[in-house]
Amino acid sequence: MSASPPPSSPVSPDGAEPVGAAFILRKAVLSALVALGLFSLMVGVRTEAGQSGQLEYWTRFGELASLVGAVFVGSIAVELLRLWLGPRGGLGSFVPSSVQNGLSAAGRYVAPALLIFTFLVPVIFYNQRYILDLGILVLTYVMLGWGLNVVVGLAGLLDLGYVAFYAVGAYSYGLLSTTFGLSFWICLPLAGILAAFWGVLLGFPVLRLRGDYLAIVTLAFGEIIRLVLINWQDVTGGPNGISGIPRPTLFGIPLAPGEGGLAAMLGIPFSPTHRIVFLFYLILALALLTNWVTIRLRRLPIGRAWEALREDEVACRALGINITTTKLTAFATGAMFGGFAGAFFATRQGFISPESFTFQESALVLAIVVLGGMGSQLGVALAALAMIGGFELFRSLEVYRMLVFGLAMVLVMIWRPRGIVGHRAPTVFLEKSKSISSDLVKEGHG
Amino acid sequence: MDYFAQQLINGLVLGSIYGLIAIGYTMVYGIVGMINFAHGDVFMIGGFIALISFLVLVSVGLTAVPVILLIVLLVSMAITALYGWTIERIAYRPLRHSFRLAPMLSAIGMSFVLTNFSQVSQGARVKPVPPIITGGYTLHEGDGGFVVQLSNIQIVVVITTIVLLGLFTWLVSRTRLGRDMRACEQDQTMAALLGVDVDRTISMTFVIGAALAAVAGMMYLLYYGLVDFFMGFVAGIKAFTAAVLGGIGSLPGAMLGGLAIGLIETFWSAYFSVEYKDVAAFSILIVVLIFLPTGLLGRPEVEKV
Amino acid sequence: MSSAPILALENLTMRFGGIVAVNALSFTAQRQQITALIGPNGAGKTTVFNCITGFYKPTSGVIRLTHDDGAQFEMQKLKDFNISKQAKVARTFQNIRLFPGMTALENLMVAQHNALMRASGLTLIGLLGLPSWRAAEQSAIDNAVFWLKRVGLIDRADDAAGNLAYGDQRRLEIARAMCTGPALLCLDEPAAGLNARESAALSELLLSIRSDHATSILLIEHDMSVVMEISDRVVVMDYGVKIAEGTPREIRDDPKVIAAYLGTDEEEAAAVMEAEA
Hints:
The structure holds three protein chains of three kinds. By secondary structure, chain A is mainly alpha-helical. Chain A folds into two domains: about 20-90; about 110-435, Orthogonal Bundle (ABC transporter involved in vitamin B12 uptake, BtuC), CATH 1.10.3470. Chain A contains 16 helices and eight strands. In chain A, the strands form four sheets. A two-stranded antiparallel ribbon of chain A has the order 1-2. Chain A has a two-stranded antiparallel ribbon with strand order 3-6. By secondary structure, chain B is mainly alpha-helical. Chain B has one domain (about 1-290): ABC transporter involved in vitamin B12 uptake, BtuC, CATH 1.10.3470. Chain B is about 70% helix and about 5% strand. Chain B has eleven helices and four strands; from the N terminus they run H-H-H-H-E-E-E-H-H-H-H-E-H-H-H. Chain B has helices spanning about 1-30, 40-60, 65-90, 100-120, 150-175, 175-185, 190-195, 200-225, 230-245, 250-270, 275-290; strands at about 125-130, 135-140, 145-150, 225. Chain B is globular, with a radius of gyration of 20 Å. Chain C is of the alpha/beta class. Chain C folds into two domains: about 1-90 and about 185-275, 3-Layer(aba) Sandwich (Rossmann fold), CATH 3.40.50.300; about 100-180, no CATH class. In chain C, about 45% of the residues lie in helices and about 20% in strands. The radius of gyration of chain C is 19 Å and the shape is globular. The N and C termini of chain C lie far apart (about 40 Å). Chains in contact: A-B, A-C, B-C. Chains A and B meet through helix 1, strand 1, helix 7, helix 14 and helix 16 of A and helix 2, helix 3, helix 4, strand 1 and helix 9 of B.
């Protein structure tokens, strides 16, 4: 640090020290030292159980050195970037407000454009099985995100065990179809009802809980469901799961080769793609149903009560709103959509096992809701696209994929803590619908 | 009766480890009001660092077990504490005054990072170590030939936990840092106005929590003789459950909750079924919270109208 | 119309641990009158309010509400939300509690939750968008518009409640309470933080609510000019007990009241003197 920095030198974001080459260098050296400490043993030494079961180790100082070097260079780069972005600094100002406003104006056209595009995906990418599969996956998460959005985004109740309802839906269809031979279209509503029932069951004990107590109980609930699925072998098949789950039919017409199949009936040659396209439109329809119902519910007293609950529970009680039923309906509605999505998942995979219903799934769906901007339907869809699509993009990174994914999650949260869509649309208006900045919107207490 | 006594010992040892991790959760919650989802993985990192430093020390020819253990303890506490500090710095500090869910998701992201970092850097396979502390005492030999045993490693775990708890209680109640921590817990703005360095105090909270998790990680390594990259998740959830059960934010509560979860798990495995031990622990958590919505020792939330 | 008072408290006692916040308090509020509850800070006024509106369960005592048609409710037995839903008691809060992320209009729509819930057939009819629901929704909007106009916030209908100025938020909270169609309106310091002009407008609004909408009002207020101007009856509390009761004129001349104020808070005692002058 020079003794008397030139007066023109810009001030660091903290306003504490002037930014100069020496400052940047010092920071980089410090970062490199921290990295050296962090990685010294974890990267510098590699352990592995040897042939005899004895643990062996070897050193990897080369990797360690390059990693520390990377942190050093990276730190300089970050500081220079900050300098270049100006004293306001921070990742928060990455998106200028003009872009922000533009986004919200464009938002009106984004949703219809996205919808039309989604409808055309199977037409455009008919021969690209990979893209269709990815599309189905994204839509499944869009649906899950919209379902959880009811609980977290609208009612402001933190649910860390949403995957439990997804599992209930999947196992409901899996068990009902393989044991009783019920068709997908009968099982679908049943899966939703059963999941909603479990939602209420979870809702009851957590009614009085707030914040993090609610979070841990929902998390525990999700784990309980998963553990029961693993251990109740007679019914659930345990870790092996359920296989041979029937594929969906077009209201009774199977999408299979041979007599009586859809292709034969239409007189066109059979192709396995038919089923994929059918699944694509099926999940799209389910997701759109979720969206439609949610949008309708928001304009009904129950939906307004959910949002009011998120804003101020005490005021709700003073206005004669029954908090108990309001919370329970939120849990049940969210769970029901999760159940639908689960039934779809089961019919699509044809095989389910407890492995698909881990906490990571809950965390992913919650991340989609929060990143989307709590309560925003469009935001959730965009976030699902970004997260699942991004995750696919990282496929080439192989073992580093989850590492990069986790880092991306951290950076995205720092960049936009309130999500992609940072405003709330009113449910009713007199003259003009003015979107409300999310700074005013509360996030609920639970 | 003998069987019961043996399970009691086992449960208390397991509970001590949970309690040490739970303190980290509860401290962070008390001061910044967030669930540090990465804390379970910090515990896992602590276990790994203990393992690696132990291997290195043995291979350079050190033979005195107490000396090795002491060095391993200090090294793993120091490096894991650095992890705690870095995590707070990178993932939580920028979100300190942000809305509540953002730091939580950042923490979940950080947890993914740590889990997969250790998988990538140390491989996915379980790392076994031979028993380091062996031997023990036979407390009672029953008629049916059942022997109640107290192994040396169990004694080490419990004594280490007690010593650390004592140290930690002294730190929080008697030192300047402890006072600053309690002040920040009450009101950060006011603490800052009165000259408390809030950033530093919060950093130190993470450092101490991580150091305690490192001790838990090392104890786990010594007790079970293995570590793997995924052990942080389950242990983390259990410890978090313990913290909530005890009343999150309450330090004695964290220890009490840890012991409770350890005992529930052990007894359930012993008398009912091993498969459902976690289900039992989580179910009891839910039942307790129905009747005591803020845990066993948590302060009841007073709603100002 | 029932001749019983709208609200009667009989030996209401509220203890928090060892502290007695309200001690054997009895008073009545008459139908279509404005009853003011005054007293120095910490006298237990808000505790009384919280007992009446169901936020606290009183340790002992009876809080009886009688509707115009003679229907009676014992508030200490009702569940909190039923106090608004069945007994038709609405309240505002000392620290304004609006739904800040919702528009002014939405705030007033939430207040009509129970009526709309019935009209929407517990959501099913509403989900299908049947005409009966649409009509009910329109009449709820009309009601909200009426009250927005009444409190002078019609231009801000589509703005977020959290964006309104302080005085506007106070009036919106009163409008929200009125949208529940209350028989008794409980206001906790509605004039706090208002300037002289806003206070005058508030007085006018409360008088109109009493006369034009047949709503009885129970009021906690520190602003003596408002209390003296609009109250039909004043109840004075200190240390959890009633020390005086009467018309504003009687209260003003009561030495016990002046002593209570002088003994605790000079500013407020001065306000009493001023109102007297």
